[in-house]
Q: What sequence folds into this?
């Protein structure tokens, strides 16, 4: 059975974009769909061989300028990759996704020429990853006011504190640290971002244990114990870290929305296929019953609607006209509607939906991350409502 999402993407994207998506989709079927169950049961992170193959395909360099060895692609390409890889596994898709949107992107958008030359070629080739150190044990939604500090010492800076929930930490060569540098500064002008080598003295990484979502993704805690970095490590401007953070997360929320819709697309295909194969009450497939049809129809409508919305926002992102509220809205709605509908799909399929080999439980669990990642939905609603309260 063909993927229903392909029907929509073939109409919503240009031919060259759909061709790119098709290549990644076929790679996903061959290299991820055929292996994901084994990786889950073996309790392993994305294997190095799979990461290397994604690198060979050029997935880590999608939006990086060709001058630095990248593909010179855009946000639409990045989202199409998320849809293609996330269909089988969000936790595999987020590996190149976070490496790009949270690692390479801030350097491409805010880095100096020297920083770009140092990092982008290896990032584009998948030879290194940069992890974004944003969340902290005591800071989640209030990310603009980090507890990690950076104090100036001559021409250097001394970084102290802990970051957590850092995606790709296991494979990272460097971490972009968002740190408080001016406690008395104006709101949004108190922090600075630094590019810190993971092998620097005083940097300690530990994989976070007990996680039950994104099972193949590395999620690390990173400690900074009096870590000294030179002034050249500053990414962007001093006390302008909030701007770097916001610029980075805006595009990242579009990618998270693509993961939610990839899970919805998988659930739609799995459920409509099962509904025609599952025979009950004599000779009737359960797909003939209206309540089952209602769930399948609602999934199909949501998929078409949110794909259309998301791809429009990708174009606005690349045109430089995407506002924060719109990126937040599509992330909130896509994650919420996909979560709700995948749960209903599991009810339609019954007990078999709880089995790992059926696949729905993987997407059900991983969809939770899309509700809290790149800004929790509750926190983002506070952002979304601001223009609605103005001039009332």
A:
């Amino acid at each position: 059975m063909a993927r229903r999402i392909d029907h929509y993407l073939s109409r919503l994207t240009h031919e060259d974009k759909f061709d790119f998506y098709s290549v990644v989709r076929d790679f996903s079927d061959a290299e991820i769909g055929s292996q994901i169950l084994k990786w889950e049961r073996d309790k392993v992170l994305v294997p190095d061989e799979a990461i290397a193959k994604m690198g060979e395909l050029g997935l880590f360099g999608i939006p990086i300028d060709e001058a630095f060895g990248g593909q010179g692609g855009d946000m639409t390409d990045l989202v199409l990759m998320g849809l293609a890889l996330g269909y089988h596994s969000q936790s595999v898709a987020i590996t190149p996704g976070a490496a790009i949107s949270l690692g390479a992107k801030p350097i491409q958008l805010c880095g100096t020429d020297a920083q770009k030359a140092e990092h982008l070629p290896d990032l584009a080739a998948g030879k290194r990853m940069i992890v974004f150190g944003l969340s902290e044990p005591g800071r989640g939604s209030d990310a603009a006011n980090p507890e990690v500090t950076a104090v100036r010492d001559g021409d250097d800076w001394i970084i102290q504190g802990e970051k957590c929930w850092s995606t790709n930490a296991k494979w990272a060569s460097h971490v972009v640290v968002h740190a408080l540098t001016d406690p008395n500064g104006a709101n949004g002008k108190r922090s600075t971002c630094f590019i810190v080598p993971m092998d620097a003295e005083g940097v300690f990484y530990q994989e976070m244990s007990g996680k039950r979502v994104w099972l193949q993704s590395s999620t690390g805690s990173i400690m900074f114990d009096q870590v000294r970095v030179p002034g050249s490590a500053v990414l962007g401007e001093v006390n302008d870290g909030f701007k770097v953070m916001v610029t980075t997360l805006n595009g990242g929320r579009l990618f998270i929305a693509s993961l939610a819709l990839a899970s919805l697309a998988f659930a739609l295909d799995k459920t409509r296929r099962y509904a025609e194969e599952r025979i009950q009450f004599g000779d009737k497939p359960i797909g003939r019953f209206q309540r089952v049809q209602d769930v399948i129809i609602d999934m199909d409508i949501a998929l078409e609607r949110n794909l259309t919305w998301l791809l429009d926002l990708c174009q606005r992102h690349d045109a430089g006209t995407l506002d924060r509220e719109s990126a937040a809205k599509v992330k909130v709605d896509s994650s919420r509607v996909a979560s709700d509908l995948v749960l209903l799909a599991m009810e339609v399929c019954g007990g078999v939906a709880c089995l790992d080999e059926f696949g729905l439980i993987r997407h059900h669990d991983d969809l939770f991350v899309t509700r809290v990642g790149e800004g929790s939905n509750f926190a983002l609603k506070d952002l979304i409502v601001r223009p609605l309260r103005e001039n009332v």
Remarks:
- The chain has three domains: 4-129, 131-242, 248-389.
